[in-house]
Amino acid sequence: MNSYEVNFDGLIGPTHNYGGLSHGNVASKGNALKISQPREAALQGLKKMQINRGLGLQQGILLPQQRPHLPTLRKLGFSGSDKRIIEQVSNSAPELLASCYSASAMWTANACTVSPSADSADAKVHFTPANLSSMFHRSIEHQTTGALLRAIFNNDAHFAHHSALPMGAHFGDEGAANHSRFANAYNQKGLQLFVFGRYAFRENKRAPSKFPSRQTYEASLAISRLHQLDESQVVFAQQNPKIIDAGAFHNDVVSVSNLNAFFMHEEAFVNNASMKAELQHKYEALYPELGDEPLQFVEVPTDMVSLESAVKSYLFNSQLLKLPKQRGMTLVLPQESRENEEVSTYLEWLKTQSTPIQDIKFVDVRQSMQNGGGPACLRLRVALTREELDATNSKFILDDGMLAQLSSWVERHYREKITPADLADPSLALESFVALDELTQLFGLGSFYEFQQ
Ligand code: SUG
Q1: Which is higher by pLDDT, 276 or 203?
Q2: H helix or E strand, kind and range, residue 237
Q3: pLDDT tens across 59-73, in order?
Q4: Which site in 223, 291, 298, 377 is 20 to 30 Å from 400, CA atoms measured?
């Protein structure tokens, strides 16, 4: 094998909590102020990484960010020692606490957009951290994300790093969660699908009415320019406003792809038929030798799975994996899909059909799910050639030894529970920094976090 899709999962940070911070994310709002279980959350995440590694895949990892993020609170006018800042904020602006404590960087599908070297004019892998400008607690992620990506993909001959797009509503960008790539192999030229929720500079275009649409067309277009993609290899499609209003705040809540397969809800896009036709047409032009219908659409009709069930179960927020030597693909779903009657009936039916999805597995990531993050949210896909994988910082490609060390690190440092009131306790901040300091040593990162500088 000489090319890989490496999944980089987010290591769930020690301050994982339910802040109810994301308007339009049904689970985040529904579980607001619940007691969280950070230790369990992180172990669930590590277990998922271990299972996928056990399937014969390369498994990468991205680290949690410094939380609470005191530099943000300082920017907002709070001053003094760390302890004093936390006390001031909890007394005078408690609404800021959960945002600055959020472990939301765990959802690495929102870390950045990645374009593989096979697609970019300069033959490099391109990374643009997502500005996540729609949600305050997420808008403070991109700088550390960029620094982490540079530390992992630290080789100018192979990797090109961009800054996040300008902040603000016009260029709202949520990264790989709204981006899919289709190709015959990871190291062959492919087709990139950019999905957006609204136009920022054009009037009278359809947009959701109830919930925010986080990604703009203009942001997607800017990423495709930065990544030096050819027009013949990109498609832009608008997500159905109705589905955003039903709670699908990212496109990966209603579709997932891998290689030549696209698993999607029939109401996912404004104009399914024209989007599919454009994808098929451009894909055929890329691979004329493949003959008719080289792209395989597995489209789920509303009368089999309603929008409500799709959003509740996170059926589509699954990992569609091509395992070594496997003919078809494996769909790794959140266990909530099995618990939803409509979805489990659909999955039983799907098993009897001839589609690229040959196998179905379930994982328990319930702690993340309760904040609206399923198996697919927890991972960033990076397609790499063998040479690029060799040029990647090997500490971040997991082996059994590192997985065991990380589990032990979690067991030693994480609280079993966090209540909303615990965020006012400065010792939680201290514990988190002690844990992160040890983590940077495990990964040989030096003084990476602001509190270490
Ligand atoms: O941005 N939830 C995240 C979930 C992100 C899921 N990612 C993808 N679909 N790719 C979000 O809404 C909730 C945090 C809280 O309420 O505490 C949160 O940020």
Answers
A1: 276
A2: strand 234-238
A3: 999 999 999 999 999
A4: 377
